[in-house]
Structure formats: structure tokens, C-alpha cells
Amino acid sequence: MKGKAVPHLIGVFPLGMMSLFFLAPLAFMVMVSFYERDPLGFFNEAFVWDNYAKFFSSFYYTISLRSLWSASLGAVLVVLLAFPAMYIIVDMARRWQLFWVILLLSLMCLSEVIIGFAWLILFSENSGIPKFMGWIGVWENPRSLSPSFGAMMVGYVTLGFSLVALMFLPQLARRDRSIEEAALTLGTPPMQVFSKVILPNFKAGIVSALVTMFVYFLGVFVMPTMLGRPQDWNMTVIITDKAVGDANMPLGAALSVIMLIFTLFIIGALTYASRNKDKGALT
Amino acid sequence: MIPIFKRLFVTAIAVGLILPFVIVAGVSINSASNISFPPSELSLKWYTQLLTEPDWLLPIRNSLSIAAVAGFIAVSIALAANYVLWRLKSGFGKLVFGLGLGPFMLPPIIIAMGASVFWAEMGFYGRVEATVISHGVFFVTLPLVILARGFAALSDDVIEASRTMGATPWQTFVKVIFPLVLPYAITGYALVAIISVNEYLISYMVSGFVVETLPIRIFNNVRYGYTPVVASAAMGFALLTIGTLLVLSMFTDLLKLLGASRD
User: Fold this and answer.
1) Is residue A35 very low, low, confident or very high in pLDDT (cuts 50, 70, 90)?
2) Within 10 A of B244 (CB to CB), how many other CB atoms are there?
3) What is the rounded distance in angstroms from the CA atom of residue A154 to the CA atom of residue A149?
4) CATH architecture assigned to A58-282
5) Right CATH number for B58-253 from 3.30.70.120, 3.30.70.270, 3.10.180.10, 1.10.3720.10?
6) Which of residues 217-256 of B touch A (CB under 8 A)?
């Protein structure tokens, strides 16, 4: 049919832009990860495994474990807070929902740098929580609460909360309420309705939120550098440090490729699991 | 008992999310030149400094111009991709659309590292054009998803009417489709612009030490000793972001757009 040619032609524009500026850079990164570092410029063409070999040392082993730990803990904390919160918020009056949506959207858009800075001040001994606690007499010798692992986690949670909450918002607002209403009229306590009816129904949504947050937290840079101690720094900080600080792009690229493969593996496993479950539901 | 508990829980979270910014606001209007809260003497001098010193004006100008162009790039890609999917429904259309969802699935560091290597090889490392294009391409997901709602809401009757009245596909697009999806395009543009202004890692890795954007400026300042100007910059930022969203909420139904209302 003649009418199909034009849409195909128009499609070349988004396809070209995405291939050239999204896929090509990723392919390039894979290529550069085999290059050699050039102390005078960026890199020299080569084919060496050195950059990958560096990953298998105790230093990167520790960093990897640490990144996995902080990202998973952050993901769990965010979902634990955001799911019940959104469950309550979707039943609030419309104006309060709008208040929350604007608050969450603002936080989602707001720079990591600014959220980190705000917590930095709130944790500092001359203007934030420590000062307040000293003032009311709970803490005699107030000290700054950051940098610390706890402060970094608070930063993670503030950063991820808006995203997860906005993911849950449509699912929770449009859910079919007939089953919970039935359970309630049959005299089930609300807490049990929440744990026995709602949670199992949202298992898929919760798992995908957990995975999204986990992947997102693997890639945060500002929170660990601003609120964490050097021993809390994750792989992202190290990659940035190597690539920009030491001007060692091949090493940065190799570490990113490893992270990319890991991420794709996780996303693939999740898609596979959810597809299998759909099949199971059909038969 | 339960309702009170619910209310307390939600309020506690709201306080946790808002409190940091109350403190920053307090610091930004305190005249003392060290960061402290509560403010002892009120003054707007840090805001004056923010808006008069070239040290701050240049990053502000950089950030705003990057955002303006990046938003335009993202929305035109998203609009084209959605139109193609809407016309073809399958195959090629889905491929184009799916590619646009990619950037949001990967950790930003991977995208930033890829962009950094790519632009270095192209000889654009450290140029503002590189940041603009990267932002435009990587934030395409938001307008893509938002415009998809707009295209889903197009009723077939209108298109059918326009076709039977003899309009060419181009005329139909310009006179019928475009006006109908325009609110979605504007929302998408605004969101990309806001996110671009706030973005740190990609700007930093692509051209960070040449083109200083506002987040980079703030980050460097915080890292190497800071004055309350940073607080006023952060506040200016937050107000700009919230203001844009409030304006948006006036002429689009944000709850519906995010899928919150039960239609």
C-alpha cells in the first residue's frame, strides 16, 4: 500500500536519532573497553583484556559487593515506604492527591545535587537535626550525622521515593476494589485485608518496582559522594573517578560494560519470569 | 485508630520529604555568611549574589539554554515515534517506540559513560552541543510515554471525518492530530526541560569541566567549601521546578496524565 511509505520515512528520524546517539555510544563503549589508555589523550586503538582483568581484583570485588548491598537495601526501604503510603494517598480527597502528585513530581525532577545538599545541611551540626537535638537537650555533644552510610541511605530513599510512588500511583488508584470490599464486609480486619488481599495482588508490581530501584541505585553518583564516606562509595563513583578523574576512559568503559551486562541480565530475568507467570495463569 | 495511624504515616513521609527544603530556605535568607539555621537576621543578599555574579549567571544561562533545545529534540523524536506507531500499529512502529523506552531502563552512569566515550571519539568532548543532544535523546522516554496517552485518546471518528472530507494525511496531521496532542507535547517538553536543568551526571561526564551547568556548579561548590549562595541557588531551582509543575497542573489534568484517576 502506498500510504505506508510515508510513516516509514518519518520513522527514520526517531530511529536514526536513537541509533546514533543512544545505541552507537553503547557500542562504542564496548569497543573502547578493549582499548589502551593514552596518557596524553583519551585512548589508543588496541585489543586488550587488561581493563577487564582489573575488575577481578579484591578492590573491585569489595566495591561490587558494596554497590549491590547499598542498592538492594535502598530498593527495599523505598518500596517498604512508598507502597503503603500510596495505598493511603489514593483514597485521600482529590486536592490532597494533587498536592502529593505535585510534591512527588517536583522531587522526581529535582536534581540529586539539590536533594543531597538539602540533607547535608539537615545533617550538619550547626543547622540541622544535631543542633536541634542538642538544643532540646537530648544530645549533649552534637556532631554532624553525615557523611555516613545512614545519611547516604536517607539520600537514596528521598531520591527513589518519588519515582516508585509515581509507579504505584496508577496501579493502586485503578485497582479493582470489589475483593477487598467483600473481605471487609465479611469482617476481615483492615490490616489483614492489606496483607492477605492487596499485597499478593500487587506482587508483580512490587517486584518490578524493586528491580527498577535496584538498577537505578546502582547508577547513583551524587548521593554517595555527598552523603557517604569513601568506604561507602559504589561502582558508579569509581567509574566516574577513573574515567574523568584519572582520564582512564578504557577502564571506565570496561567497568560500565560489566554493569551493563549485569543490568541486562537482571531485566531479562525479570521479563522472563513475568512471561512465564502469564503463561502459567493462562493454562 | 487505624485512620489516625494512616494519617500519621503519610504526614511523617511528607515531613521527611519537605523538611530538608525548609531548612535550605531558612539558610538562604539568613544574612550570616556561614551556613546556619534558624536564621538570625533575614536578608536576600544571597539571592542578589546569585543573580548578579557571573560565576553563577553563566551556569544558569548554560543550563537554561541546554534545557530549551534538549526539550525540543526529545519532543520531536517522541512525536515522530508516536505518529509512526499510531499509523503502522505494529512491527516497525513498535521497534521505534521500544527503542525510545531504552534509556530509562539503564543506570544513568552507563549512558553517561557511553556518551562520554562517543563524544570524545567524535571530537565533540567538552562541547555544549554534545550535552544538548545527549539530554534530548536520553530523556525522550518521558514525552514518548506522555504523547502515547495523547495518541491513545485520539478518536477514530475525527480522523475518519477528516479523511472522508478529502484531507491528505499531512493536512490531517497539521489540522487535527497535532492540535489534539499539543497539550501532551507541551507537558512532555516541560518535563524534559526541568529534568535537563536538574541533571548532573551526563552533563558532567560529557562536557562538565568546560560547560558548567547549575548542578555542576552547586556540586563543585558543596564539595570544596560553600557559602549560603548555594542554598539560594538550590531554592531558586526548587521554586522554578515546582512553579513549572503548578502551571502545568493548571491546564492539564496531572492526575489523569499519570493514570491516577479512575476514568
Assistant:
1) confident
2) 18
3) 9
4) Orthogonal Bundle (1.10)
5) 1.10.3720.10
6) 218-219, 222-223, 230-231, 234, 237-238, 241-242, 245-246, 249, 254-255
